Amino acid sequence: MTISQLFNVANLFVLPFWALMILLPNWKVTRQIMSSYLPFVILAGAYLYLFINSITPESAQALSNPQLADIARFFADEMAAATGWIHLLVMDLFVGCWIYWEGQKTGIWTIHSLALCLFAGPMGLLSHILTDWIVKTFFPQSQQNETVTVEEKAAS
Fold this sequence. Notes:
Blueprint: H1 3-23, H2 28-34, H3 38-54, H4 57-64, H5 68-75, H6 78-106, H7 111-119, H8 121-138, H9 140-155
């Protein structure tokens, strides 16, 4: 498999997980799938493969004391860029999964945060943190009722 093919497969691999969390968050199958570490293990395996193959003694030395110019040169290489991208896919999916489970646990609406996390991970995380704060600060009673509803749904 070429680097380009691995890159394309990794991009497609994450989409069903995002679709389940965003479109069918309360479906029993979504909960089962998202409780597994397997997607992260597979993506991390691809990352590890690319990482090992993209590091040279020169790049390792440059990355040990990173300067912006060194990072830019490192990511100009196709293998290094694919490695960095898969790193983002793994971490964004992990953060998205955390947001998803926080929403399941608390009943706080997460669709907007998950959609943002899919396209810009840190913005999705910030969105969830702000949503959680707003709900807990301004609507504490409604959040408490939602939690009970979510727990009842999970039990059934």
